[in-house]
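2024-03-11 09:14:02 INFO receiving multi-entity request
2024-03-11 09:14:02 INFO entity count = four
2024-03-11 09:14:03 INFO echoing inputs for audit
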Amino acid sequence: MSAAVEVRERVRELLAAHDPATTDRLDFLRARFDAGLAWVHFPEGLGGLGAPRSLQAAVDAELAAAGAPDNNPRANGIGLGMAAPTILRYGTPEQQARFLRPLWTGEETWCQLFSEPGAGSDLAALGTRAVPDGDTWTVDGQKVWTSGAHTARWAILIARTDPGLPKHRGITYFICDMTDPGVEVRPLRQITGEAEFNEVFLSGVRIPDAHRLGEVGEGWRVAQTTLNNERVAIGGQRTPREGGMIGIVAATWRDRPELRTHDLHQRLLRGWLQAEVVRLTGERLRQQLALGQPGPEGAAMKLAFARLAQELSGLEVELLAEDGLGYGDWTMVRPDQVDFLGRDAGYRYLRAKGNSIEGGTSEILRNIIAERVLGLPAEPRTDKDVPWKDLAR
Amino acid sequence: MSAAVEVRERVRELLAAHDPATTDRLDFLRARFDAGLAWVHFPEGLGGLGAPRSLQAAVDAELAAAGAPDNNPRANGIGLGMAAPTILRYGTPEQQARFLRPLWTGEETWCQLFSEPGAGSDLAALGTRAVPDGDTWTVDGQKVWTSGAHTARWAILIARTDPGLPKHRGITYFICDMTDPGVEVRPLRQITGEAEFNEVFLSGVRIPDAHRLGEVGEGWRVAQTTLNNERVAIGGQRTPREGGMIGIVAATWRDRPELRTHDLHQRLLRGWLQAEVVRLTGERLRQQLALGQPGPEGAAMKLAFARLAQELSGLEVELLAEDGLGYGDWTMVRPDQVDFLGRDAGYRYLRAKGNSIEGGTSEILRNIIAERVLGLPAEPRTDKDVPWKDLAR
Amino acid sequence: MSDLLYSSVEEDLRAAVRAVLTDHCPPSAVLARCETPAPYDPRLWRTLARELGAAGLQIPEEHGGAGAGLRETAVVLEELGRAAAPTPYLGSAVLATTVLLGCGAADLLAPLAAGEQSAALAVPLTADPWADFPAGVRADAAGTLSGTVTSVPDLAGAATVLVPALGQDGPALYAVESTAAGLARTPRTSLDLTRPLADLTLHGAPARRLAGPDTAPGILRRALLTGAGLLASEQLGVAEWCLATTVDHLKQRHQFGRPVGSFQAVKHRLADLWLDIAGARAAARNAADALASGDDGPETVLAVAVAQAYCGDTAVRAAEECVQLHGGIGMTWEHPAHLYLKRAKADQLALGTPGRHRAALAGLADLPAPA
Amino acid sequence: MSDLLYSSVEEDLRAAVRAVLTDHCPPSAVLARCETPAPYDPRLWRTLARELGAAGLQIPEEHGGAGAGLRETAVVLEELGRAAAPTPYLGSAVLATTVLLGCGAADLLAPLAAGEQSAALAVPLTADPWADFPAGVRADAAGTLSGTVTSVPDLAGAATVLVPALGQDGPALYAVESTAAGLARTPRTSLDLTRPLADLTLHGAPARRLAGPDTAPGILRRALLTGAGLLASEQLGVAEWCLATTVDHLKQRHQFGRPVGSFQAVKHRLADLWLDIAGARAAARNAADALASGDDGPETVLAVAVAQAYCGDTAVRAAEECVQLHGGIGMTWEHPAHLYLKRAKADQLALGTPGRHRAALAGLADLPAPA
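2024-03-11 09:21:47 INFO inference complete, emitting structure
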């Protein structure tokens, strides 16, 4: 029996045993997980069937068509996209058994405690300390840019366990209980007025050694799995023609002839062209991925997207003229999920500024392209072999 | 008697003693030099009067009005602009007496043997060797981008005299006799088809130690005087509104309405704006200089000029459409002097590419602005303290 | 040729203004105030306007002003831009004052010169000198005004509102007291937190006519031209703050064992930005000098269009680079960078976008558009 | 959605073409030849056209061609661009061949397919698909042609010249033998040393009519559209050579004790360029795929406009960066960078400038110009 046939069979069995119309949502999701239809490329027993990843889309479609509930993936992006692949690769059998099922069903959401105010793009320079004490670790430090920290049950965390080693080598990767009394979450207000992210203060947080992921001192290597999955997620979004920011600007252009000038027209034509080419570039990347030839364009799509979003959102404000002077609302809110496009032009303009900072700055992405794709030599490094504690900060 | 009055008196005496209408050109120029009216800020006996430099313009104007010949300064830019100030500052009395008078009168023209194919922007990495042998030096190496080498009588030359020292410290500055049999000059053809510059091959060239300028090993410091004078010369040009490249493009725009499109119009407006702002920036710099407050804009004007010339010349070719496909003449010629603007659009486009390379690349100028003006830290240097012979090349 | 430098008197004025702003208006104070219903600090305005005489710089001495001029006014605007200071300076001391000077309304100038009151010119912040005389407000036969003007800057605290309106005989300029019956002001939520905008509604509001059809269009145009030209100086101040703050940050901030400011890509971008700001400085000074001459001829108009076309974009780019090169810190509400980004972006739209001013160059510089 | 990748057949073709070009057409050979009166190497053309069948890729097998298509033709153009190869491929195998296919002129296609002859389309290299049918040549009642066409690409060696002309009954397409009485060719000095241009003069030249008013405008437009769309692939090849050559140079070249390619400002510029070239690749493939479908509907026209608007500027920028980042070496005649700069700049004007194609987007993408 081919994998595709087997998977289809399993779907049929699941639906037969758990009629979506009558089954409780959570019960259905748990049953789906146990049937190996959560992520078919995961191993059996962990929500999968060891089948090709490409079969997942058909499963999702078939279940959706049958009226089955989904696991609301947008509400648990960190868990599904980053924590799960890392637990799969580096977790102990006990950790995998404990964490993956409630993660996938959404019973437990996750957040990521990686970034620190003092480290920025130099993530490996992080200063949050984890000190061993018997079979638990005590963690102290400050993390930032943590989305969902106020609702997450668990966090993936990297912390420094040996300051005497060079920065990449003294880091260990943990699973942190967000209900620990030492965890304090504060909303981090952004230039848009809202607080998508949080600051997280860790004061004497206790983590059992059983919640360590990977070996002591191997945290940087473990984190690469997490971060690579972040990049893939960003590069994989497909947009139709005039999807995203250009669609909004073009619609305004069509609706409001009184705003048109030749200056704006020429800039709109350039922006539209750029958007269409970025769309084609992304489409070409997806065609390569479908053939199993992941091109280096992946990292680059984020760079292109940021450039485009910033240019177009700036143009939109100018196009709107007097209407561009306004702003919807400065009240601080904590949105459930990011909506780059949904609010007004001023919001789009401000929010797009983050596109070239979050998840790898455009400067870092240019370094990556130059070194990994073009093979240009690295800059002289002064920080590779210096103990972390002696680094200039 | 104020300096201004004395200078005016000298001019009157010179004209009285040497009627330009009847005096041989060279005799007049020599007499002018001996009267201290060549460059009034030079010392007496060396063509000057130790007077303020600002008085020179009046001398030039008065003599020109009287019909006196000038020393054809454009034909000896390197000599007047670079060699002379260096000889004045570092030359022995004998050297000053020997070289400055025929340099100024134009009897002897000069060229500059600094750049090397292997060094580029890292001028101090030069590899031309000068080896002492009694009271003469033997020089071997290759120089490039030497304008006027085929007509020059003398050259200012920097060469490596101690490869065991770090690169800036093992250089010595010489005056090189271009008639030495070891000097071979070959025209260097450029992308425009013409050969403004030369390559100069030095094979066993003999230079008496008496033609050394400054101490042995001090050549880099001496060369700074030469190079600083090059920068000042570049920054000091005044252009009227629509001077330079923009004037040509704007004239074509006005003359040929059939070429106009909205795309080109918007770009022309931006180009015109940029040209006007560069002009104002230069004017502001000159007003500062006139008050004795040289601003850092000097180095930056060259950067701005290159950017502008390249953008406008590229636009011009597009504007001309079919006419932009042509080119005047690819025949290799050796022009007497550079004319950035005089030929056709294709030539302007190609020649402007050199504006961001010759006399300090735009990349080097940006480094200079970032470090000297903005005070940003230098990059880590790996080449400062390494013996030249051990440098990666 | 214009004088593009700063005189020592101008530098003294700058130092005085900067000292006041440093004391009264640090970024934290601006931030704390800008979401309150009263974004302008009345104490700051009193100090600037009354003690330094900054509000009356272009008002002749016989009307209680300093009798200085627009070059000095421009220097104040540079400092206000550098501080992202929330004051009604542009609306009152530039736009409204220029109108009152044009109308010769001495009695209304005096309280402005003394810093006792502020005034507003009832045009949208986006009004530009090339547009037609506005038709949104009409005067009836009795001389009362009715109509609406949206997005008026510095309207909230103004004691007097100067209203361009179509009277019975054509374009005219009127003064309306802000307490007049039939006058209402509705605040808008603005992108720029430091320059509040409000809509003005007039329903039969009693008004005093200051200028009629012969002079009103010219006076209004002169005011908008002056505003556009001097706004370039504010934009210069914004850009300078952004560059200086970014450079300071990058000298301190270390990543990968080095100051971030030692990375060449960053250095080159900042060098290019510095060069653009040098251009903005020359263009802004040129416009201020041309306006200060009092000559409204083609050279002055050209100088304004060049300055506003150039400085508007330069300030935005400087602010955008400031946010980007501060990294995550620059995206936070706590850091003042966003105040400058919002000011720069709103200023780009104010008194004509760069595109609008470039379009004006087509006529001013004889670069005709395609047929 | 278009197939934006290269098939293995296409990659094989690329390898074969590249091998020929590496052997016959290294930069030194191009340079040596390009100032001679015969800039095209007849041996190279024979090998490409005859042995590889590259000239007949889009010609059906029944007419002696390979019966492949425009996707494959585009791959050949990429390689010709990468080599800055002087061949009449664009003029003959793309423009003239597309016209002959449209006219169904089987007898004229055969010698082209066999690589025995080349043909030229008598339009200026700057002709674009959006322009009116050309009116520079007229046919008299006897069917002989008179008139002038300037800046025709690949005219010099062409055995047959295809001439759009106004006949007695309207636009028509004619074939004229290059040896015909009354036909004269005058070479021009071209900016692009690798694609010679010549003026065509006709004085009562005998001609054969291939298409009349019903079909001629559509056939010519299809040819120009095909040329513009496939030229994007040539521009991609030019850009790729420039980037790769620059990267290689900067890995080798040391300054200040480091490879120049390790300096971050240089790296970031090249990363941006790489990203733009990735876009050019997607856009060029999209146009080739759309044209290969044979559908001339709005999606194909849009794909061509997007590709030509984007790739024309990208190739120029790549070539300009190549010269700049080679420093002085890049300014010398001896280094091939200038061949690519000149090709890229001439290609930018060819078959419609980027501005012309962007303007076409206004209609194609419903982004109307201001009234």
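2024-03-11 09:21:48 INFO post-check: Residues 217-364 of chain C form a domain with the Butyryl-CoA Dehydrogenase, subunit A; domain 3 fold (CATH 1.20.140.10).
2024-03-11 09:21:48 INFO post-check: Strands of chain C lie at 119-121, 137-139, 144-153, 160-167, 170-177, 183-187, 197-206, 208-211, 254-255, 258-259.
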